[in-house]
Amino acid sequence: MTKLRVGLLFGGRSGEHEVSISSARAIAKALSAEQNANKYEILPFYIQKDGRWLAGDAPQQVLGSGKPLLESENATNPQQSQLTNSQTKTLERWQSPSQVAEVDVWFPILHGPNGEDGTIQGLLTLMQVPFVGSGVLGSALGMDKIAMKMAFEQAGLPQVKYKALTRAQVWSNPCVFPKLCDEIEATLGYPCFVKPANLGSSVGIAKVRSRSELETALDQAASYDRRIIVEAGVVAREVECAVLGNDQPQASVVGEITFDSDFYDYETKYTEGRAGLLIPSPLPDQISRQIQDMALQAFAAVDAAGLARVDFFYVEATGEILINEINTLPGFTATSMYPQLWSHSGVAFPDLVDKLIQLALERHSGKSAE
After folding, report:
1. pTM of the predicted structure, to 2 decimals
2. Which of 20, 23, 134, 201 is the catalytic position?
3. What is the pLDDT of residues 142-158, one digit of tens each?
4. Does residue 320 lie within any of the structural domains?
5. 28 a known binding residue?
6. 326 in the same domain as 194
7. Active site residue 336
8. φ, ψ for residue 312 (rounded to 5)?
C-alpha cells in the first residue's frame, strides 16, 4: 500500500507561532499512531517567524524540541552571498523547498493571520492540491470578526450588539473621536469589549467600563488592525461546539469553559490552570441540541469545510443563546477544546486526524469534478 505524503505545515508569522508548533506536534504524533502509520508519511514544513519555509531537518528539530527555530540557526545559501541582506531575505521568503512537490495532501496548522485567514489557503488552492480545512472564503470570513458577524446576521443567527469601526475613524481629528465614543456608549453601553477584527487567541482584546478605558482600548486595537469591532458585554456562560465534515457536517457534544479571571483573555487561555473545560457541559438537553444546530448553521453561513469550533454565549437568566464566533482552524493539541469535544463524542484523536485528511481529499475531488 502506497502511503499518502502529508505536508504538515506549521509555525508561521502570527503571534500564535508557538501554539501552531504545539498543534503540529500533536498531529505528527497522531499520524504516527498505529492505525495511521501504514497510511501516511509525514513531510513537515516549518515557516519561521520571518516567513521562510524550511523542510528536512529543521522542522523535525522544531517538532522534537517544541521550540521555535531562531533565524540565525538557519544559515543563508552561499550562492546568495553577493546579494544584500535585504535582497537575500526577500528572495528566501519567496523560495519554497523542493519537497513541496512531493506532497499529496496538505495539513496546514497555522493559527492567526497569514495562516487561517485565507492567505495560505489561496496559495494551496493555486497549487491545485488538496488541503485540510476551509477554503479562501470560509477562512477569510472566519478570521475577520466584522465580516463573520455580517454572515451570521444574514443567516439569522442571534448575537450581541456590536459596532464596526476603522483605524481611520479612531485616529481621526479630535472633534470626530469624542462623537464616536458617544455613539458607542449610547448603543452598547458598559461594559463592552474592544477587539481587533483580524487577530486570534484573544490578542489585543480589552474589556472596558469607562470612557477613559474605551479611548485607550480603541487606540490599542487600532495599533493592531485597521478594522476594529466593539461588542456589548453580556453575563453568560461560554460554551463551544466542534463541527466536522464538508457538505454534510456533524456537531460534537457541547463543552463549556470556566475561568476565574474577568474574561477569557490570552493569558487565561494559555496559562495552565487558569481555565477549566467541562465536557460535556451540564446544560439542559434542549439547549445543547439548539447549540449544535446553530453551530451547523454557522458552519454553512461562512462556507466552512473540514473542521471548525463555534463559540457561544448562553444567557442562563433568559435562556438566550448568542453566537460569538467561529474558528476555522482551532488549536489542535491533545488538550485543546476541539479534539477533546470529538474525543467525548466517540472520535479518538488519531481517527480525527485521519478523518480530516479524508475530508480534504473528498473536497478536492469534488472541486476537480466541477
Report:
1. 0.90
2. 201
3. 999 999 999 999 999 99
4. yes
5. no
6. no
7. yes
8. -135, 160
Among this protein's residues, is 16 annotated catalytic? yes
For residues 303 and 151, give the distance between their C-alpha atoms in angstroms, rounded to a whole number.
10
Q: Are residues 123 and 258 in the same domain?
A: no
Are residues 189 and 259 located together in one domain of the fold?
no
Distance CA 97, CA 55 (A): 6
Own/partner long-range contacts of 255-259 (Cβ < 8 Å, ≥24 apart): 255/279, 255/280, 255/281, 255/337, 255/340, 255/341, 255/344, 256/281, 256/282, 256/283, 257/337
Cell digits of residue 201:
487567541
Name the residue range of residue 209's domain: 162-232
For the cut 90, the answer to whether the pLDDT of residue 339 exceeds it is yes
- Among 148, 230, 224, 159, smallest CA distance to 194 is for 230
Residue 172 lies in a domain: yes
Does 151 reside within a domain? Answer: yes
The x, y and z cell numbers of residue 195, run together, are: 477587539
Say if residue 194 carries a ligand binding annotation: yes
Q: Which of 232, 250, 276 is the last residue of a domain?
A: 232
